[in-house]
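In the current project phase, the collection of sequences with tokenised folds has grown. A sample record is quoted in full directly below:
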Amino acid sequence: MTEPAAVKQTVSVRERIIVALDVENVAAARDVLEELRGEVGAFKIGLQLFTAAGAAFVREVAESGVKIFLDLKFHDIPNTVASAAVEAARLGVWMFNVHALGGAEMMRRTVDAVNEVCERENRTRPKVIAVTVLTSSNAETLTEVGIESPVENEVSRLAKLTADNRLDGVVASPHEIGLIRETVAAKDFMIVTPGIRPINATNDDQKRVMTSAEAIAAGSDYLVIGRPIVQAKDRVGAVNEILSNLGSDIQ
């Protein structure tokens, strides 16, 4: 059956953690999945693993009962993105994203297409969210591509555009969580935050980062965490350390 858009509910912090499977191959992904399945809420499959493993692997993992956030950031003409979104829904993913810079028509047609196919084929509707400004970007990056407004203004504008076109939420830096909450009044509007790092970790290629505790306190719904967990010698231990800093439940 088709599910409604995102609904706020009390869930454990463990369920709020999305582990990024940013690994080179299926074997490495299976290793992480085997170790952390049941320890976190979901797993993210992005461009690297999707290119290496393909849609069949996404379907296999989703059909095994694992929640998958398909992070391919669709950005193309409206018809192409809507068609790709339908295929993502058919893979059985829990959530996928598009680029908000694709514009209102692209986002609106994507939501309509996903709603229609899920209703017609009796599928569970995936969450559809939009990327605002990548956490690897800063004011200089935006200027390079002709966007003169400050990062905060761009994030606010794109978050409003996303909400106006009935998507379930956004991917945004934890530094913009408060701004998005001020911009979008809907309480069920999800904020998914990458750029999460432990206090003693490096930022790697992320520029606008924050610790997990800071992001949760700011109002993040889901934390995307990759290298600090995936590259840890004891992955379960790394997850438990994050959980110990967050408490047992969040609203």
In short: Residues 12-242 form a domain with the TIM Barrel fold (CATH 3.20.20.70). The first helix runs from residue 13 to 16. The chain is about 45% helix and 15% strand.
